[in-house]
């Protein structure tokens, strides 16, 4: 029974949403006056409630239990017992008690304060936008500068690669020249060795011819004459030594 009563009350409150707020306020005031006088009014609620699991429906009338307070405090009452309060809480309606604090302030001051607040928010937002725009501009300038530096670095890298390629080609040529020079030096060394051997042979022949001349001169001085005896003469012509024997 309590569940059905809550459902019916909720349906009644939901049906009051389409009613104007002024009418709800008047009804609330009338209800408060009636409660102070000790009178209670019951408004029948008509709804369709299934009486059984079968598809048939039956119209029933419920009357919510009333409390005879006679001006007493409503301590312990639930919010659902006052439809106007429930509707106001559901739609965030400002009550007269909540408006008392604002009613003492003139409307032009409220508007001025709100305008000043909005102006302050606007100025702070505009300042943030200016700072953000300046940061964006500085970042764009930095990005363009870095892009230029990157392009210059890429150009320098390309030039360096070209120079390295040229140096590699020059190094290959130098290696070929060095190899040729090595071959020439080896050939010159072989020729020098041959010339040295020839010079040694010529020097040996010259020494032998000199020794023979000295021996001949000694023999001539010892005998006083060289007639009737064979003599040898050594002649050197064009780097060659020839031995000539003179017969009697």
How do the strands and helices of this protein lay out in sequence?
Blueprint: H1 2-15, H2 21-37, E1 45-49, E2 58-62, H3 83-90, H4 96-103, H5 107-223, E3 231-237, E4 240-246
Helix pairs in contact: 1-3
C-alpha-based Rg, rounded: 68 Å
Straight-line distance between termini: 180 Å
Strand order of the largest sheet: 1-2
Helical content, roughly?
A: 55-70%
Characterize the overall form.
rod-shaped
| N-to-C SSE string, H for helix and E for strand | HHEEHHHEE
- Which spans of ≥5 residues are poorly predicted at pLDDT below 50? 44-76, 225-248
Number of helical stretches of at least 4 residues:
5
What structural class results from the helix and strand content? mainly alpha
Which percent band covers the strand fraction? 5-15%
Number of domains: 2
Number of beta-strand segments = 4
Largest sheet: 2 strands, antiparallel
* Mean of pLDDT: 70
């Amino acid at each position: 029974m309590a569940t059905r009563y809550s459902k019916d009350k909720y349906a009644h409150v939901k049906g009051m949403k389409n009613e104007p707020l002024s009418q709800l306020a008047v009804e609330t005031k009338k209800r408060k006056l009636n409660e102070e006088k000790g009178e209670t009014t019951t408004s029948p609620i008509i709804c369709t409630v299934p009486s059984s699991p079968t598809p048939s429906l039956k119209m029933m009338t419920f009357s919510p239990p009333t409390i005879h307070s006679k001006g007493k405090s409503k301590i312990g009452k639930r919010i659902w017992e006052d439809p106007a309060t429930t509707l106001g809480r559901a739609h965030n309606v400002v009550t007269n008690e909540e408006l008392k604090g604002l009613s003492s302030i003139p409307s032009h001051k409220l508007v001025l304060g709100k305008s000043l607040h909005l102006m302050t928010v606007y100025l702070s937002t505009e300042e943030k936008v200016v700072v953000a725009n300046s940061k964006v501009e500085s970042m764009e300038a930095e990005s363009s500068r870095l892009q230029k530096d990157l392009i210059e670095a890429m150009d320098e890298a390309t030039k360096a690669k070209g120079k390295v390629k040229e140096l590699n080609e020059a190094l290959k040529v130098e290696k070929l020249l060095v190899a040729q020079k090595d071959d020439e030096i080896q050939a010159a060394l072989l020729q020098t060795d041959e010339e040295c051997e020839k010079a040694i042979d010529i020097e040996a022949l010259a020494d032998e011819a000199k020794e023979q001349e000295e021996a001949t001169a000694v023999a001539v001085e010892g005998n006083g004459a060289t007639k009737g005896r064979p003599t040898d003469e050594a002649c050197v012509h064009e780097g060659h030594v020839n031995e000539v024997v003179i017969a009697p």
